[in-house]
Amino acid sequence: MAESALFESRIRLSGKVKQRPQGTAQQQYEARQRAFMTITPFTFNPFSTNCYLVESAGELVVVDPSNQSEEEHKRLIEEIEGREATLKRILLTHAHIDHIFGCARLSDHFNVGIEVHASERVLLQRGEVQASMFGVELESPPEPVATIEPGSSITFGDVVWDVLHTPGHSPGSVSFVDHDARLVIAGDVLFAGSIGRTDLWQGSLPVLMESIFSQLVPLGDDFRVLPGHGPETTMGRERTSNPFLVGHAPIG
Ligand SMILES: [Zn+2]
Ligand SMILES: [Zn+2]
Known about the structure:
The N terminus is likely disordered. The protein has a 7-stranded mixed beta sheet with strand order 1-2-3-4-5-6-7. A 6-stranded mixed beta sheet has the order 8-9-10-11-14-15. Strand 10 and strand 11 form a beta hairpin. It starts with a helix and ends in an 11-residue tail after the last helix. The chain contains 9 helices and 15 strands. It is an alpha/beta fold. The longest helix has 12 residues. The chain is globular. The protein has one domain: 4-Layer Sandwich (Metallo-beta-lactamase, Chain A). The site of one zinc ion has 5 residues, from loops.
């Protein structure tokens, strides 16, 4: 936990605090908490997949529960239970096996359903096939309780995220965009110095490049990118130095 705390981001949500908080010390503390979103990243399982625990105003969301081992389950569950906040949603950027290992355990433990784009349902249902392909074990994930719709908003606490459909790595890959905090949780679409693989089921390199250039690059160079694997980066750094993006002519 100490390791994840090092990288924890505390992000002020713009425009949320218009004046000095009034009231008792406790009320002022609560007002300050409401004005922030915190993002705690974890890296779990043999594929080193990032899981993000995001907190705002007493509400928590997990993006990509990649916890696989008993120790990882315990670490994430204890972290959530240690917060003065309630887990509200479990969101998947996509349903490749390395992003869904912890769905069953987390969903059962907190009685919170999982949410995924409709085009990923097949992958989710075939979790065990994916597991045997990669020679790993998987507790079958539950059926999703909701479908993540591109163009809709994900809300919790004081946070509003836009949902972008960014296919190419998988058919129903989505990215969560926080315009207040100027960051995007991009799953396996774009990495620091690399891009998602396109050789898995319904992957497509042209489609992936189109997603990156038409959906992510226009967000702006200052946007932080929190990827599904590896360290965070910025859109500007990737636009100007990622070998897969530099010199690439967008496909019309
Ligand atoms: Zn993936
Ligand atoms: Zn992945």
